[in-house]
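Quick one: Toll-like receptor 3 from Parambassis ranga, structure tokens please.
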Amino acid sequence: MMCVHHTCLWLLIACYYVTGPCYCVASLKKASCSVHHGRADCSHLSLTAIPSDLPGNITSLDMSHNRLRGVSPASLHPYPGLLLLDVGYNSITVLDNGICQTLPLLQTLNIEHNEVRLLKKEDVTYCTNLSRLNLASNRLKLQGEPFSALQSLQFLDVSMNNLQSAKLGSQPQLPRLVNLNLGSNIFNTLTRDDFFFLNRSSFLQVLNLSSSSLKTLEAGCFKPISGLRTLILDGSRIDSEVIPKLCSELSGTDIDALSLRKIKLVTLTNTTFTGLQKTNLTFLDLSNNDMAKIEEGSFQWLSRLQTLILSYNNIRRLTKGTFQGLRGLKQLHLTGALVKSHGSSTAIIDDFSFQPLSSLQSLSLQKTAVREISGNTFTGLTSLTELTMSWSSYISLKYLTNKTFASLADSPLRKLNLIGTAIAKINPGSFAVFKNLTILYLDSNFIKQNLTGEEFQGLGQVQEIHMTNNYQYLNLCPTSFVHVPGLRVLTLGKSLIATALNIDPSPFRPLVNLTVLDLSNNNIANIRENLLEGLVNLKVLKLEHNNLARVWKSVNLGGPLLFLKDTHNLVTLYMDSNGLDEIPVKALRGLSKLKELSLSNNLLNNLKDTVFDDLTSLHVLRLEKNLITAVRPEVFKTPMSNLSLLVMGKNPFDCTCESILWFVTWLNNTNVTSLPGLKDQYMCNTPLAYFNHSIMDFNPLFCKDMTPFQTLYILSSTAVLMLIVTALLVRFQGWRIQFYWNILINRTLGFSDAKVEEGRQYEYDAYVIYAEKDASWVERRMFPLENEKCRFCFEDRDSVLGMSLLESIVNNMRKSRKILFVVTESLLKDPWCRRFKVHHALHQVIEASRDSVILVFLQDVHDYKLSCSLFLRRGMLRPCCILDWPVHKERVPAFHQKLLIALGMTNRLQD
Ligand SMILES: *[C@@H]1O[C@H](CO)[C@@H](O)[C@H](O)[C@H]1NC(C)=O
Ligand SMILES: *[C@@H]1O[C@H](CO)[C@@H](O)[C@H](O)[C@H]1NC(C)=O
Ligand SMILES: *[C@@H]1O[C@H](CO)[C@@H](O)[C@H](O)[C@H]1NC(C)=O
Ligand SMILES: *[C@@H]1O[C@H](CO)[C@@H](O)[C@H](O)[C@H]1NC(C)=O
Ligand SMILES: *[C@@H]1O[C@H](CO)[C@@H](O)[C@H](O)[C@H]1NC(C)=O
Ligand SMILES: *[C@@H]1O[C@H](CO)[C@@H](O)[C@H](O)[C@H]1NC(C)=O
Ligand SMILES: *[C@@H]1O[C@H](CO)[C@@H](O)[C@H](O)[C@H]1NC(C)=O
Ligand SMILES: *[C@@H]1O[C@H](CO)[C@@H](O)[C@H](O)[C@H]1NC(C)=O
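--- reply ---
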């Protein structure tokens, strides 16, 4: 690692003077080796020796990119369990034979890019367990049979060693070798005994001779390795004339794959591959060859070929004979193979060019430029299931008609890729021949039309139509997709005109199986509430970069549009960049399967409580770049309970206890796996004290200090409130409380028992209390009511002779079943009444029960006055014990009747 930065340099100098040279380098580099799962990585540490302080049980040690000059076996003693040792990119000159002795389990030894010069048998004599040896890019001079001890070696790389010969030994050896890389060496001849040393290597599969300079191949050079399966000659400086020779040398071998990329093979003739006739070659890569001409019959020898790669060439013309004989071909790659180069005309595909390819399943014509597609261009491709023409230029594709693909009528095509082919219009029935098509790509074209539905006629099996990036010229109507009811994926991002979805019924109504719908980037402002009606299988809905703010506004005419009410299986919802400033409480109801919700780049501020409450499965929530100030549990507790990714930065957070405490605490304790930008993008905007600080700087202790005060506040305010209520209650209803209280006390303590009282013999039915002034009324109205069954006690009349007045009153009251007050203003003022009679009467009332009092009102007396002077209120008595003296004479009998009823009542409280 070079230290070129200026500060770095100064640091180095400063460091040098302060601590001396030894520590400086280390202090500027990666600190030390890292060890994970038994693998130690000590690369790029400028080490000159293997560290001795690593765990003894490591199985892999990477010492690459250091300054080792050698590897001493002693330094490996602490790590006997090593399976892999990488000492690549050092300055090792000699391979010490003690390495394999010290590391008996070693399987992989990587010494690439060192300065190993001499390699003798003794150097690797103990490496019998080694399976991979990489000696690439050294300066090998082989002496004797250096590799003969490597009984287990499977992979040997001696590329880039300036080897003068491919001959690595003279005796058969390397019995287990699978892959040999001899590339980038300087030998230009393969002699017949070069590979004799591999004569017994029956597992050999791959021989890499890339970037070599082969000029001469002696007859029989591949004989010793006729089991070879793969030969790589990419980038070789090999004469075109040598290729037929190469092929004939491969004749009769097991060769399966031949890679001839970048070898300037400009022309193929009908004899180039003759030698491959007696092979079972299945894979041939001829890409990047600037190939201009393929003679007819060039591939006639390759009847077993399955994959032919002709990508990135400059082929001018395909004819009927080009692919002649490729009966078994399954894949043909022509990506970038047919182009229009300046100075020449556009390439041509003749009619019936592909006819010999009856087994072809996949054809790629990506990035090609071809003059036209005719009625027979693809004729004969009876097995073709996949056709890719993306990013190509075919004039015939500008206006698709029912003739464009007529030649594919016999192909069971399943996948058609027409991305970026400059289609401008699809006429009715253009795809009608594709009865088996399941996937259709039409993205990145210029399709400008009103999709009436006829365009997709005949695509009965289609499951996916991709039409993103069509420059927003597409319009829809209710019948647009009637011919493709099995559609599962429909992408219309950046393709629709802004009004395309403002139609009723919805164009998506027939698509009951739709699972993915992309309507993003369309500037759509107006949709209908039934846009997604019936799409119960919808899982992914992309609506980002539209203009749907109005749709969810509460002031929207007719209320917000709850267009997600049918899509209960939604898993992913994108609504970023829509100018949303509110979300109706019911907008996301029922979306209990939603895993990913993206609402970034909107104007959301105050989210309503419970708006996310149904989102119990949410894993990913994106709300960055909104105007969110507060993150309250009422909104976010449910959706955040299960998250694995939260993106909420770049909001103007209000760092007060009320707004942010819950969120900060949650962030502190959450086990969400990913919170990108937590340190630098979650900033406080208010209050001033926290402005531009990370919300994680928010001090929760502030809020904790508040808690006792808050409790105190709540307690004290509650107390005050209760006091007020009690005071008011006492003030206005105190009498009632007191009254019932008294009754309760008397009852429980047994001062009175109505039943006992009931049995007592009363002398009078009622003791009548009245004011002096009302005596005449009493005489006139009460006396006449007396008879054998009904007797009143009037103090004036019935006082016991010889008794004091007080005694007499007490006595008489006790003898009376009821106490009857004749209430008038005068009574209230009468001192006797107020001071004694009433008190005693009340005593009696409480002792017995409230039913023992009857009030007869001669005047209308206010309840307040009544309670002041008599300590009685109307509400204390049963309604029938309160009687009003009627104004109208005719009602007097009724009054009498009522009075008798009141007197006849039992004293018992009726519960
Ligand atoms: C290696 O040993 C260390 C202790 O020295 C131990 O913690 C670690 O689990 C061991 N690793 C393996 C792969 O055995
Ligand atoms: C190769 O093409 C030449 C004409 O270009 C023709 O005469 C010859 O018969 C062809 N050979 C084979 C094997 O098809
Ligand atoms: C090619 O395959 C066939 C049958 O699969 C086999 O009989 C024949 O020997 C093979 N040819 C070569 C050269 O491997
Ligand atoms: C192709 O469309 C034309 C009209 O555009 C029609 O006359 C013709 O019958 C159609 N051909 C087929 C094979 O459907
Ligand atoms: C193509 O579809 C037809 C019926 O529409 C069916 O008979 C045929 O088997 C399908 N071909 C393939 C390869 O699926
Ligand atoms: C689109 O086509 C449908 C069906 O033909 C038609 O009803 C509708 O008016 C057309 N819309 C436009 C904008 O041309
Ligand atoms: C929808 O999918 C179901 C199950 O795969 C299938 O049976 C049904 O035919 C499909 N509906 C349409 C209209 O293709
Ligand atoms: C977050 O945790 C740290 C250490 O556990 C603590 O000091 C800090 O006060 C916590 N912050 C909040 C908001 O809980």
